[in-house]
Design goal:
Elements (H helix, E strand, L loop, with lengths): L18 H10 L3 H30 L9 H35 L8 H24 L30 H29 L12 H32 L13 H35 L6 H14 L15 H29 L8 H24 L1 H7 L3 H31 L5 H27 L16 H31 L37 H6 L10
Length: about 550
């Protein structure tokens, strides 16, 4: 049993158990690695479901005067699709990454509160089940059921009982509250783990960038989710106890709901994107053979984004008639967020410049992310200008911008993270050939769909319409956008087959297939239950480089 300076090189082997016993072990587990895998697997399942809903909507809009879906069904689809992607895909996926990787990266054996960790996962899962159970019981078990149809933003007065049918909106409300409790519990756990469980020698200045970004994201979750939960409780009081917070016919304010919702909704964009930034900040230096450029500036930019993001919510509300002073303030503050975001993009590009680049699949996804998020940032600055926003609000330009952020940024970094850390979690390598098929099909499909929707929006195509008349100049663009979904689905199918194939007969990964330098690569693949036989001690932000090259104090690849 050989040892390195960090761990005992021995895989934790357990006796083969029958399927019921293995399933029971996963259900009752409090191991951060298993819970991380469960978070990621569940979010990918919901991603597949949301993808099917999106494909149905694009099929309906492929041709003018489409009849595939009735308008009520279309409204339910875009409500459940948006809610799923934001609350059941983006947040839990990166909660899973944080659960799996943060203890490994900081040299700990588990999260600070293992049972709270399990509680967070099961609350998230229960919230997701509640949302989709509305398809069965949205009008009561005696009825035929209906999903919520109020949009993922649920603007008042659509959510008042006089306007919504049955109890479907109640399922939406309860789903958000329950999954939000799970997200908050997970965020508190991540903060406590990072603050109190770092290994000897790991000061805040020496923490991996991934851990820094997860710390900021978790703090944002703790700040941003309570306003949304409060608004949901107020909405329930409106619906069942005669309150009138958002009931305009009884003196309430529909705009008040928008303030509460977007006070969560805009920080949520960065709650989703900062973990993507975290993945890119780990992947790009490894495949550039260079340390991250401007590490201190990256940390400062992250903290600045976290602070600014909670103060720009009303740029989603320029069309409601805010005072001129408010429009000016939120225009300026929104544009200000572009400064730390631009610093990050500059630093990633500077890291790649002059490096010995390796274009493996994780790096390809990160390069595409850089280009696409830059475009998303530029259109975001355009939308930050109130006069421009007045022209294009509620058009497909906004849909395209939003998807450029969350798919062009979130989804591509998500896939890059899967290819990068899959060997650590399973001990098997994913196929590079299938990975490149996945990448190129997704890139082609993504740009076919969302590049064209920018132009459809400029030509006046409203969002949330279930059909449209011919002769308005939207037909070709809408058809091309729908065809792009086929390429995207084919790319995701390549990933699914790649995972199945690799789990069955993938090449052994070894402990450190990418020649990394953070502590998760210092242990076995997959890691043992206890992570490290001997807790590590670090002296720099690149502990594995120090271990592999003790004679070379400088950070460089020979």
């Amino acid at each position: 049993m050989a040892t390195t300076g960090y761990i005992t090189e021995k895989v934790n082997k357990t006796e083969a158990l029958p399927v019921p016993s293995r399933l029971h072990e996963w259900i009752i587990t409090v191991d951060h690695k298993r819970l991380g895998i469960m978070y990621i697997a569940t979010s990918l399942f919901f991603f597949a479901v949301a993808g099917v809903l999106a494909a149905l909507m694009r099929a309906q809009l492929a041709f003018p005067n489409g009849t595939l879906l009735p308008p009520a069904v279309f409204n339910r689809l875009f409500t459940v699709h948006g809610t799923t992607m934001v609350f059941l895909v983006g947040m839990p996926f990166f909660a899973g990454l944080a659960n799996y990787l943060v203890p490994l990266m900081i040299g700990a054996r588990d999260m600070a509160f293992p049972r709270l960790n399990a509680f967070g996962y099961w609350m998230f899962l229960f919230g997701g089940v509640l949302l989709y159970f509305s398809y069965v019981a949205g009008e009561g078990l005696a009825g035929h059921g209906t999903a919520p149809d109020v949009g993922w933003f649920a603007y008042a007065p659509l959510t008042e009982r006089a306007f919504s049918r049955g109890t479907s909106t109640d399922y939406w409300i309860l789903s958000i509250i329950v999954s939000g409790i799970g997200s908050t519990a997970s965020a508190i756990n991540v903060i406590a783990t990072i603050v109190s469980m770092r290994c000897k020698g790991m000061t805040l200045a020496l923490m991996p960038l991934f851990v820094w970004l997860m710390l900021v994201v978790s703090a944002m979750v703790v700040v941003a989710l309570p306003p949304l939960t409060a608004a949901q409780i107020m909405l329930l009081l409106d619906r069942y106890l005669g309150a009138h917070f958002f009931d305009t016919q009884a003196g309430g304010s529909a705009v008040l709901w928008q303030h509460f919702f977007w006070l969560f909704g805009h920080p949520e964009v960065y709650i989703l994107m900062l973990p993507g930034f975290a993945c890119a900040s780990e992947i790009i230096p490894v495949f550039s053979r260079k340390p991250i450029f401007g590490r201190a500036a990256m940390i400062g930019a992250t903290v600045t984004i976290g602070i600014l993001a909670v103060g720009v919510w009303a740029h989603h509300m320029f069309a409601v008639g805010l005072p001129a002073v408010s429009n000016i303030f939120f225009t300026a503050s929104t544009m200000l967020v572009g400064v730390p975001t631009g610093i990050k993009i500059f630093n990633w590009v500077a890291t790649m410049y002059g490096g010995r680049l390796r274009f493996d699949t994780p790096m390809l996804f990160c390069i595409a992310f850089l280009f696409q998020f830059l475009i998303a940032g530029l259109t975001g600055v355009m939308m930050a200008a109130a006069p421009f926003d007045w022209q294009l609000t509620d058009s497909y330009f906004v849909v395209a911008h939003f998807h450029y952020v969350l798919l062009g940024g979130l989804l591509f970094t998500l896939f890059g993270a899967i290819y990068y850390w899959f060997p650590k979690a399973t001990g098997k390598m994913l196929s590079e050939a299938l990975g490149k098929w996945h990448f190129w099909l997704l890139v082609i499909g993504f740009h076919m769909t969302f590049d064209t929707l920018h132009f459809a929006g400029i030509l006046g195509m409203p969002r949330r319409i279930y059909t449209y008349a011919a002769g308005r100049g939207w037909e070709g663009l809408s058809l091309l956008a729908s065809v792009g979904v086929i390429f995207q689905a084919a790319g995701v199918a390549c990933l699914i087959w790649n995972v199945i194939r690799s789990l069955r007969k993938g090449a052994p990964a070894g402990n450190d297939p990418w020649d990394g330098w953070t502590l998760e690569w210092a242990t076995t693949s997959p890691p043992p239950e206890y992570n490290f036989a001997v807790l590590p001690e670090v002296r720099s932000s690149r502990p594995l480089w120090d271990l592999k090259h003790p004679e070379d104090p400088d950070w460089k690849y020979e």
